[in-house]
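Re-running Chaperone protein DnaJ to confirm reproducibility after the cluster update. Everything else is unchanged from the original entry.
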Amino acid sequence: MLIYAITWSSPSKKAVRGVTKEIRIPTLEECDVCHGSGAKPGTQPQTCPTCHGSGQVQMRQGFFAVQQTCPHCQGRGTLIKDPCNKCHGHGRVERSKTLSVKIPAGVDTGDRIRLAGEGEAGEHGAPAGDLYVQVQVKQHPIFEREGNNLYCEVPINFAMAALGGEIEVPTLDGRVKLKVPGETQTGKLFRMRGKGVKSVRGGAQGDLLCRVVVETPVGLNEKQKQLLQELQESFGGPTGEHNSPRSKSFFDGVKKFFDDLTR
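Result of re-run:
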């Protein structure tokens, strides 16, 4: 078995929909001179005289007999008197090879892709093992992935949060319009069904959840400051009861806390 790590940029459209990617890996392949036997052409490995080809020897320890790996042939059962000049008796040589790996839709960090028979060649002519490609997914600059769902933050100004409107948001299929209702509070989640990641094991596709963040305006000019001051006064101050119910609830709680302390 051979394990190879691959880093994949996701959730990109290719990673979510699936793609074929070429990789170049170092591996051990069967020696093309001795064909994996490890012996020089024209010769053959000899049966180990110690274990008689079993690879095991029996050692007595008092009244007990214990099976151990043959120390002469290291468990192979054969000895190479005339080793191959290319592989020096190992039967395998180091090489690099290029493979096409089909990355399935919805792949995520820690997933493994099995390529049967593409691992290292077995010792002394044994069949090659399997190659496991382990995927490491890079963090996306916009989306965060949780299972098959995607999350993204959508900043809006306080005017849109109060009055409502439409704003374009990114998805893996392109931009779509998100309708923001009036009186939207920061942290509110809007779900776009089917805009997430397809399950790598099949089944329904995940959703995209947009988390609204209401931004405080910066770099205000004098006119804008004056308008905001007038707006605040129309609210009845920073703790206006009608327009800021959460502020009223908070300050009512603070007042009750201190009233209880003085009783």
